[in-house]
Amino acid sequence: MKIAILSRNPNLYSTKRLFQAIQEAGHEALIINHSVCDLIIEQEGPSIIYKGEKVLGVDAIIPRIGASVTFYGTAVVRQFELMGAFAAVNSQAIVRSRDKLRSLQILSKAGLGMPKTAFTNFSKGGEKQIVEHVGGAPLIIKLLEGTQGLGVVLAETKKAGQSVIEAFHGLKARIIVQEFIKEAKGADIRAFVVNGKVVGAMKRQGAEGEFRSNLHRGGMATVIKLSRAEKAAALGAAKALGLDVAGVDMLQSARGPLILEVNSSPGLEGIEKATGVNIAGEIVKFIEEKVKKKTSTSVNNQ
Ligand SMILES: Nc1ncnc2c1ncn2[C@@H]1O[C@H](COP(=O)(O)OP(=O)(O)OP(=O)(O)O)[C@@H](O)[C@H]1O
Ligand SMILES: [Mg+2]
Ligand SMILES: [Mg+2]
């Protein structure tokens, strides 16, 4: 099988590990920088030109699309899908998961727990009311498309909350406002889901005095065994968003696990190092299973 990793940086831990896992399983591995692919769309069918040559014979792709290139990256994933390649993460699901608001709407419809969240259309003068919607202070304000913990603010008082909302809206930045989950104590849980199974889980504890647990913000990761409810929440979230490979972030609260967000290109370094699990290998196994099934159904249908 020929499996391509869509990644802009071949030196990233995740890219290197996936490359290695593909080769270890006896397949041909290649890395394609999606940001410099040209997409050709014509009557004879879709094709991709990469470094001056037509991309041919790719059986499956593993998209690793950074948040800043979601639009172009997902167009490339879609093109591969149209060309018949199996995508470990579906293009529509990536788009869905990138929008925090849309994801939370879908997760709430699926009956999953989450911090109470409010969204408003730059309402001038309505800041006080938004703060009340989520139960007053302390509260969390986040940019809709932030990542690595940047653009997440904790407001300790109602007044501070209102000013931050005003400031973001003044800059025309879209935000969500959320109840602050105190019991989480600056920690969150990352469950790594592959093909309807939790293949690894870690708890990330924020640095001293930091409410954000992101590893990029100095958080520390340790392996954790999930409760039954946490496992069910992680699997439910990945399923609701249509992601076969996902990093589900949850907070532990007095009312059970609360989903924060679901990542469609979750990093492998933190989770593999914390758990010792060969997560890259699990992703390759999943692809093998899907592509085999696809080939056998097409034979059966002939
Ligand atoms: N409602 C909340 N209550 C308590 N802590 C929170 C809340 N929301 C976020 N946090 C903390 O802040 C961190 C960053 O928030 P979140 O994951 O939503 O942002 P992000 O910038 O998208 O991060 P990522 O890099 O994981 O995409 C969380 O991991 C968690 O530790
Ligand atoms: Mg995020
Ligand atoms: Mg997060």
Automatic annotation (TrEMBL):
Residues 104-288 form the ATP-grasp domain. Transmembrane segments: none annotated. Its cofactor is Mn(2+); Mg(2+). Its EC number is 6.3.2.-. It holds the Pfam family Rimk_N. PROSITE patterns: ATP_GRASP. InterPro entries: ATP-grasp (IPR011761), ATP-grasp_RimK-type (IPR013651), ATP_grasp_subdomain_1 (IPR013815), Rimk_N (IPR041107), Rp_bS6_RimK/Lys_biosynth_LsyX (IPR004666). The keyword DNA-binding does not apply. GO terms for molecular function: ligase activity. One of its GO terms (cellular component) is ribosome. It comes from the Bacteria. Keywords: ATP-binding, Ligase, Magnesium, Manganese, Metal-binding, Nucleotide-binding, Protein biosynthesis, Ribonucleoprotein, Ribosomal protein. PANTHER family: RIBOSOMAL PROTEIN BS6--L-GLUTAMATE LIGASE (PTHR21621:SF7), RIBOSOMAL PROTEIN S6 MODIFICATION PROTEIN (PTHR21621). This is 30S ribosomal protein S6--L-glutamate ligase. The lineage of its organism: Bacteria, Pseudomonadati, Bacteroidota, Cytophagia, Cytophagales.
